[in-house]
Amino acid sequence: MDTHETQGAGGSPTVETLTERNIESILCLEDKARAAKPTFYRMVSAVAAFCGTVSFLWINVAVFAAWIALNEVGIKFDPYPFTFLLFLVSLEAIFLSILILISQNMAAEENERRHHLDLQINLLNEREMTALLRLVTQVATRLGVEGDAQREVRALTEDTNPSAVLHQIVRAENAHDR
Predict the structure, then answer these.
(1) Per-residue model confidence as pLDDT tens digits over 100-138
(2) CB within 10 Å: which end of the chain, N or C, has fewer?
(3) Do 30 and 63 belong to one domain?
(4) Are 96 and 51 in contact, with CB atoms under 8 Å apart?
């Protein structure tokens, strides 16, 4: 890659470069997490992914149509009302439901990990912003800047207590639901 593409003014990396690096890092972490899953879970994930495609729909349509056609025109191994076909379709539905539920549980676990990552990054970002606000407040004080802006910034330099904010959200939700 050209250095002009990866670096901005002053030789620092561009936002695009940093974003690509972050995306690649997260994708690698997710690949490792998937690879660490037992083989059964990887198979369930692959089957559930395939069953959610148009190809799977057409395969089912073709198999059912062939089954019915064969029993109507050719060998009558499962005559109308196609009891054995209904039995097989019921088994397919049971197994697909279970596979999809397992797949959804795995997706929920992955989403929960992403949520925790997002939360931790947000908490770190909040700490960084608080530190910057404290620094700016000190600079403003040394420069003799006072007034409403200074008071608001001072209020924001307080450490945020995630537990207190969560309780505030719960109280607001409960009050809103009444």
Answers:
(1) 999 999 999 989 988 998 999 999 999 999 899 889 888
(2) C
(3) no
(4) yes
